[in-house]
Amino acid sequence: MDRPRRTNTAPETDDRNKEAYRMHLTARQRLVMTFTFFSMFFGAGNLIFPPFVGAQAGFAIMPAGVGFIVSAVGLPILGVIAVTFAGGFDALASRVSPGFSLFLGLAIILTIGPCFAIPRTATTSFEMMVAPFTPDSSTWAAQLVYSAVFFALAFVFAQHPERLSKVLGRFMGPLLLTLIAILFVACLVHGGTAPHPSGDYATNQLARGFLDGYQTMDLLAALYFGIVISANIRAQQVDDENEVRRETAFAGIGTGVLLVIIYGALSYVGVVSGGITAIDSSTDTGATVLTNLTSSVFGASGTAFLGVVFVIACLNVCTGLICTCATYFHTRFRTIAGRDVSYRAWQVIFTVFSFIVSNAGLSAIIKVSVPVLSALYPLAIVLVLLALTHHVFGAHFPRVYPWTILLAAVPSVATCIASLAVVFGGSLPWLDSLLLLLPLQEQQLGWLVPALVGAVVGIVDSLLRPPTDARPTRP
């Protein structure tokens, strides 16, 4: 293993409290950190959303792609840096309140776990591997059987996740990147005419792309990844906190560059696929976009190969998520109603629950997840921005945190409720009318102005009511 370079940054002194030397990672170690960071973010789910954006945006892919990349790449990288600077997710969210930290932590774990992300691993791999070869009349039965086998295997592998990671983790990343490169080159050779923008991308492509970037759920995951990355850097004998933050930023920038390149390639794949076969945005998904392309360019064998890759990748991700969620709940809730709940019991609960949800189908899971993410993402964005500007605002005006979060949460949660009503076939016209009074609400950004108002109110409140606790806020 490469040893970190030691650079003399100060003359030797007798003061034992001063660091005479500062540790840096070597170029090779930085590259390893970058690919570790990248592998934490990029899963099979990240393969299906950029092509879906490209297929709908058509020749308007540039503004749509920019919006998608800002929320799917820029925000998660900033989130990791923000959490690193704050000393972890709990430390950051507790600046609002301990109760908010617990609430948002639970909401994030359930979202990236059994409610959406874990079921999506089964439905995505089914759509890629089985659905193209299954008659429409028996799709539901095939999905039931497939998901039962998929989650049974995931539960077994979750008992020894390190074995699966050692076997699959080493080649799944390179295999997925190779697959993307093959698809991109095939699209360059095939060419075609970009379709007209359709579906949600008929207008306001920039804003729509930004909102669809939520579907990667990477910002929510990033709030937990930051502390993991910084711990990996410290394990390389980098002890100075400023250097840990600096190396984390290097890894984040490298990961961001990789993601931008890959999302750009996949968006172009989606544009070409949309030109070959038109899609229905209300029923089709990114998996449909990819299978349309592979069946047209490579035939049935190409679609089958793509499906196998997705199954393996999704199984790996599912195993890791089951372990992550079970660990979190076992740590937080060791007893319920006076009875002990074991780690294995939490694994069973999440596996069975995810199996049930997965049979709703990929399209239905995505439709329900959109309103939920529209409530959680604004809170995560506000929290990250407050953390990045902590020395300017939060450190001097601590009530900026609760006020900004509160006023951003009201329209975000209200928008979530109104959208869920539509998803389930109802409507709340009175709530829709109230929300339309907010600036930018038509672009689903109605929380932005209230959040700015909350920051101002927080500053004023901090000046009028200085905190009784004189201890300084952690930087």
From TrEMBL:
Membrane-protein topology: Multi-pass membrane protein
One BP term from GO: isoleucine transport
Segments traversing the membrane: 31-49, 61-87, 99-119, 139-159, 171-193, 213-235, 304-329, 341-362, 368-388, 400-425, 445-464
InterPro entries referenced in this protein's UniProt entry, alphabetically: Brnchd-chn_aa_trnsp_Livcs (IPR004685)
GO terms, molecular function: L-isoleucine transmembrane transporter activity; L-leucine transmembrane transporter activity; L-valine transmembrane transporter activity
Cellular component, GO annotation: plasma membrane
Pfam families, per the entry: Branch_AA_trans (PF05525)
Keywords: Amino-acid transport, Cell membrane, Membrane, Transmembrane, Transmembrane helix, Transport
Subcellular location: Cell membrane
Family in the record: Belongs to the branched chain amino acid transporter family.
Record's protein name: Branched-chain amino acid transporter
Organism of origin: Bifidobacterium parmae
Lineage: Bacteria, Bacillati, Actinomycetota, Actinomycetes, Bifidobacteriales
